[in-house]
Amino acid sequence: MVPTFVLPIREYLLTGLTAAVVTFLLVGPVRVLALRLGAVAWPRGRDVHVTPTPRWGGLAMLGGVLAGVGMAYQLPALRLAFDNNAYEMLGVFGAAVLLAGVGALDDRYELDALTKFAGQTTAAGILVIFGVQWTVFYVPWGGGGTGISGSLLILGQEQGVLLTVLVTVALVNAVNFVDGLDGLAAGIGMIAAAATGLFSIGLVQRVGNDPAAYSPALIAAVLAGACLGFLPHNFNPARIFMGDSGSMLIGLLLAAATTSASGKIALYGANGTDVLALFAPLVVLAAVVAVPLLDLLMAVVRRTRKGMSPFSPDKMHLHHRLLEIGHSQRRAVLLIYLWAGVLAFGAVALALIDDPFIVLWAVGIGLVVAVLATAIPRVRSR
Fold first, then answer.
1. Which of 232, 109, 100 is nearest to 176 (CA)?
2. For residue 65, what is the DSSP state?
3. What is residue 142's predicted lDDT score, i.e. its pLDDT?
4. Which of 165, 347, 122 is nearest to 256 (CA)?
5. Distance in angstroms (rounded) separating the CA atoms of residues 149 and 164
6. How many whole angstroms separate alpha carbon 215 and alpha carbon 256?
7. What is the pLDDT of residues 214-269, one digit of tens each?
8. Number of H helices, E strands in the chain
9. Which helix (H) or strand (E) holds 317?
10. Cβ distance 378 to 325 under 8 Å?
11. How many CB atoms lie within 10 A of CB 278?
12. Shortest CA distance to 54 belongs to which of 22, 32, 24, 26?
């Protein structure tokens, strides 16, 4: 008889809901604290908001994330994730607390870029020390050569550490760069986490419900819940901003979930036959952050061509351009949600659905709709 198993879907949903409710409830006290202690975003020339707005929303999100993790530990099904990956889970959420703390200090005292970068690399280093690290890369060409086994590029310790740190720092800064409109970073974070969580649950099913593969979905679930709980307070007109404490938290947990999932694929499916499944973490990684990463690359190129520092602020981000062509703040945010959702869930669907042509058709239709919706104000103005 073939053994049957039940995926802990309800448990994941409960942890995400717990994170959402606790985040929602914590925003009020955090907002009062931010106003009293001066963690306030005063309007500047490059900003879209016109009234002083408290920051530190990321601290409420961190509280929601930790509450979701605490709920998961109380559930017998998900407690197995801690039994099998206790060291990994400790590293992920320890790094999250550290980086959210650095972000909170920046929200209040405006830390310099080098100090923030040091905090980001330290958090990435904690992930590596606690075993959250890229170890295997799928390559579409075959064998031979040092470090290549069939269709798998086996990363050495140094290469794995470097890749993990680069991916983590890139994601942290990408989400930070895109946090420019009310609800934008929280919505993209929720979409990205939901897509990564969906892929991770598919991975759990693929490996026969082995608890050793539970941790990526758990990280994604609590992050998605925290973003969802924060959105009602942050959507236009925002009553509070997440600040760097929130944007860097989102980037770190996305990197942790994706890196952890890649390790589970390397452990259970590294035979080179299922190309999409092996390559899916990288596809998901690129897709779920395509908008903020594109924004990051465009900003760096734009600023360096002008002889400016890559960290110099301006009003030429993608969301600023959407406002320039006639979209309202809310519509611009919803459009970016649409682009991020099509890319993220399209990548996940390619990994989970057997017929890629159906997925490609659906993604193509979604992209056409996104392009038309984006271009509507410009077409009307002619």
1. 100
2. H
3. 52
4. 165
5. 21
6. 10
7. 999 999 999 999 999 999 999 888 899 998 999 999 999 998 998 888 777 655 54
8. 13, 5
9. none
10. yes
11. 24
12. 32
Tokens of 341: 């959702």
DSSP 210-260: -GGG-HHHHHHHHHHHHHHHHHHHHSSSPS---HHHHHHHHHHHHHHHHHH
Look at residue 46 and tell me whether its pLDDT is greater than 70.
no
The whole-angstrom distance between residue 320's C-alpha and the CA centroid of its chain comes to 21
Number of alpha carbons in the 13 Å side-chain half-sphere of residue 355: 4
| pLDDT at residue 302 in the model | 62
Q: Distance of CA 125 to CAs 86, 119, 175, 249, 358, Å?
A: 17, 10, 19, 15, 40
User: CA torsion, points 331, 337, 340, 341, in degrees to nearest 10?
Assistant: -130
Question: What secondary structure letter does DSSP report for 151?
Answer: T
Which is more confident, 53 or 371?
53
Element (H, E) at 138: strand 136-138
- The mean pLDDT value of the chain amounts to 79
Q: Which two tokens stand for residue 64?
A: 């929601």
How far is 368 from 128, CA to CA, in rounded Å? 40
Cis peptide before 377 (omega within 30 of 0): no
Q: 0.90 cut: is pTM over it?
A: no
pLDDT value at 277 more than 50: no
**Tokens for 20?**
């959402």
Q: Which band of pLDDT confidence, cut at 50, 70 and 90, is reported for residue 148? A: very low
Angle between helix 356-381 and 329-352 (nearest 10):
170
Q: Which two tokens stand for residue 122?
A: 């330290």
Could you tell me which of 250, 259, 217, 236 has the C-alpha nearest to residue 319? 236
What pLDDT does residue 318 have? 59
**Residue 317 burial class via C-beta count within 10 angstroms: exposed 0-12, middle 13-18, buried 19 and up:** buried
Q: How far out from the chain centre does Cα 256 lie?
A: 9
Strand order in the sheet with 136-138: 136-138, 152-154, 148-149
- Burial annotation 136-150 (CB, 10 A radius, 16+ → b, else e): bbbeeeeeeeeeeee
Helix (H, G, I), strand (E, B) or coil at 148: strand
Q: What pLDDT, on the 0 to 100 scale, is given for residue 11? A: 93
- SS3 sequence, 163-175? HHHHHHHHHHHHH
